[in-house]
Amino acid sequence: MSGQTLAQKILSAHAGRPLNAGDLAVVNVDYVLAHDTTCAWAIEPFQQIATQVFDPAKIKIFFDHAYPAPSAAAAGLQSKIRKFASAQGIPIITDGVCHQVMAERFLEPNTVLAGADSHTPTGGGTGALCMGFGSTDAAVAMATGKIWTRVPGTIRINLEGKLHAGAYPKDVILSIAKDLSAEGANYKVVEFGGSAISTFDVPSRMTLTNMCAEIGAKTGIVPADDRTAEYLKRQGRYHPFERLRSDEDAQFEQVLTYDLSKIEPTVACPPDIDKDVPVTSVAGTPITQVFLGSCTNCRIEDLEVAYKILKGKKIAPGLKFIVTPASRQVYEQALERGYLSEFSRMGAVLAPPGCGACLGRHMGVLDDDDVCVSTSNRNFTGRMGSPKAKIYLASPATAAASALEGKLADPRKYLK
Predict the structure, then answer these.
(1) Does pLDDT of 1 surpass 80?
(2) Kind of pairing, strands 153-160 and 188-193?
(3) Is 79 a residue whose pLDDT tops 70?
(4) The model's pTM
(5) Taking 90 as the threshold, does the pLDDT of residue 2 lie above it?
(6) Per-residue pLDDT averaged across 79-107, rounded?
(7) Could you say which DSSP state residue 356 is in?
(8) 3-class DSSP state of 380
(9) Which residues on adjacent β-strands are paired with residue 259?
(10) How far apart are alpha carbons 271 and 175 in whole angstroms?
(11) Which residues of 50-69 are buried (b: 16+ CB within 10 A; e: fewer)?
């Protein structure tokens, strides 16, 4: 038997037997995640198989995709979920995007999260194995504490070298998406390594793992290390953890290496995640909205990047600039540091923590003629509203520079 990858080791520990790629397994989960859409769809199948959840403390239900409710329909779904959660003894969490709050409060290295949301892989930045499932699967997990899965193969991506000023983790993952395509990692684990990964803090790693969903991956993961320990200590919940690694003779389906020194500010052009070009090639394209938010890029580190570019300036006349912190913790950090007051003075709209404009339900829905620069993860037709609108995905730095000019802009001119 050949060596195991990191993901295979974590799944084996939770299945109670050695697993390799392709094996079917029933796996014990540490947490189950659902939100104000997917939980509503899980209630009926859950009630067909159980009356009580396996452990209320391990089930996390969030209101984040459309909260506060922007319509009577959304309010009705949330009311249905509240009744279910109350009967099961599960508190509803309304403190921001589920993936961000899971990382802040709950996830630890080598744990397994079954999440009823496609961007569940975000938590892989903490060294946890976080996989997305449908609502019916989530219902089974809530009832039994288990999930069945086929063990994915692993693509290893090694990061080497150092990013130049103006380039950020978002530019890295967009460059990877261009090479692999929107389907290049279908049902695979993307494991990040290489000498440069130790220079990426956990929030930066979460940007990488978040967008693994956009290249078809089952999940993305970064092996836990000193950076992970630093993050957990900062969050006030560090516990010693085993530093699992893929074996030297583990079988990877692909091994790709990226020289970070060659990465430059990049945008994903509409309507495809893999239509990625240097921002210099589209600079000057007029825009109508900038969205600084989502589980991809609205942590305090992202807001700091934007703040340093925007401080003391004004956004372009007529531009809609929407800032949506990823969580209540991030919101409060940004308040304390003065970022939000500065954004407000320059003309930004400050939205409450949550998904906001990302999925086109509220807080910044796009009209036919809108062209948006977004720090989120999806730019397909109709994602943020009208199917005629256009969405460019970019880093917080590129988004901030574009907000100043009212057109796509290279952030490097604003960086000392």
Answers:
(1) no
(2) parallel
(3) yes
(4) 0.97
(5) no
(6) 98
(7) G
(8) coil
(9) 160
(10) 16
(11) eeebbeeebbbbbbbbbbeb
